[in-house]
Design goal:
13% helix
Length: 156
Amino acid sequence: MAIEIEKKYLIRTLPEKLIVDLHPNNILQGYIAVHEDKTEVRIRKFGEDYWQTIKSPGHLSRQEYEWNITQEQFHQLWPLTEGRNLTKNRYLIPYQERKIELDVYAGRLTGLVVAEVEFDSMKECSAFTPPGWFDEEISGVRKYKNFILASEGLPQ
């Protein structure tokens, strides 16, 4: 088990040349279940790796259990995510002493770009100053949670 501490930001305009030389990882992500308390069970193909993850409810900080699954297991479980899945390309951008995970969504979520930054502690999270090209912070905003995006589509 790990504790995930992260902030999310909406990106309306990327600076020119920010991702030109970066190579994204394609992510297929689907939700098998979301409990009424908002605990999520998801599967993900990230590059050539396959994962199953359980995340507790929360906004800035939550528990995360994650383990590798096989390609075969992923494909067996994928039909369970029908109507609750998404595709995105993730760019890893060095910033200060951490990495920005820049997600450029595809398919029915095309046009949505979100940046996530993970932290080792709530103290680091609170002290974080985002780069100027970050727009609105959306940490904890329900309509930008990946499960909601996967099941309901782009926010209005």
